[in-house]
Design a protein that fits this description.
single chain, Single alpha-helices involved in coiled-coils or other helix-helix interfaces, Rossmann fold, 3 domains, seven-stranded parallel β-sheet, 13 helices, P-loop_NTPase
């Protein structure tokens, strides 16, 4: 960077450290776009702060946004500053977010203790944007004590949230086929806590019993944690306080068994892998001739990948 550019980054960092939310929003934009200024700022700020990171996942329509809204209220009652990263589906053609509306959380838009940011998944199969971990680092450095990451809700492939969050909350609903989805390999194993939302609908008790039966057959969790199941009605707030206490109990479990540091290392590993994946995608898009040679059988995919990833002379 030039001296003038370095000064602008330093000014942004100064305003960030002073608690200017506009500086936070600007920093998030720079990081999400991969701008060099964002990377320089992130390098200076990374590792500051220790937030409780809760990943909220589940099928579309399970009421994740409404439940997140209620959990924000519980956190604010306890005096916590709250950050929210809402990862929206994005168009596979334009990369733009398809949803992007956080209407259910609009009650918090004037609360200085709450910051909500939508991010586009940009086609990430795990339901997370590649810049999610970098954004988490910025929110931690800004002083948020709890961060909720609400993911796209794409089903079985959404296991990446467990690599990013300290606590993973899986939201299911009765009479929606969620029990079948939850029993698929990979989905039951990622959840530290289950919420059966819209419990006032028929089939709530049956879903809880099915989940209990499935959990008895699942492998033991680190430190002997047994995932609890909480019935909730997010629309009215019923059961949300008990759910929040469950999140607190899991965080205490992680601390007591020395598991938090391993979580943070895995989060960083996920971030590095995401950068590599994005580099590979961009290089492949720019290598039409190479892709055509694979299609003609002149190269194997492995040979093409090696030529793309090989350090340039």
């Amino acid at each position: 960077m030039t001296e003038a550019q370095d000064e602008r980054v330093a000014d942004l960092e100064r305003r960030f450290r002073q608690g200017d939310p506009r500086a936070l929003a600007r920093a998030l934009t720079l990081v999400e776009s991969g701008h060099p200024w964002g990377q320089a700022l992130l390098k200076r700020l990374r590792g500051q702060g220790q937030a409780k990171v809760v990943g909220i996942t589940g099928s579309p329509g399970a009421g994740k946004s409404t439940l997140t809204d209620r959990l924000i209220l519980e956190a604010r009652k306890r005096g916590e500053r709250v950050g929210v990263l809402a990862v929206d589906p994005s168009s596979p053609f334009t990369g733009g977010a398809i949803l992007g509306d956080r209407i259910r959380m609009m009650r918090h838009h004037q609360d200085p203790g709450v910051f909500i940011r939508s991010m586009a998944s940009r086609g990430a199969l795990g339901g997370l944007a590649g810049a999610t971990v970098a954004a988490l680092s910025l929110l931690e450095a800004f002083g948020f004590q709890r961060i909720f990451v609400e993911t796209v809700g794409v089903g079985q492939s959404e296991v990446d949230i467990a690599r990013v969050a300290d606590t993973t909350l899986l939201v299911l609903t009765p009479a929606a086929g969620d029990a079948v989805q939850a029993f698929k390999a990979g989905v039951m194993e990622i959840a530290d806590i289950f919420a059966v939302n819209k419990f006032d609908l028929p089939g709530g008790e049956r879903l809880i019993q099915e989940l209990k039966g499935a959990l008895e057959l699942s492998p033991p969790r680190p430190g002997g944690w047994r995932p609890p199941i909480y019935p909730t009605v997010a629309a009215t707030g019923e059961g949300v306080e008990a759910l929040f206490e469950g999140l607190e109990a899991h965080h205490r479990h992680l601390k007591e068994h020395g598991l938090l540091e391993a979580h943070r290392l895995e989060r960083t590993r996920f971030e590095v892998e995401s950068v590599i994946q994005e580099w590979g995608r961009r290089r492949t898009q720019a290598a039409e001739d190479l892709v055509a040679r694979v299609a003609r059988g002149e190269l194997t995919p492995e040979e093409a990948a090696w030529s793309l990833l090989r350090p340039e002379a």
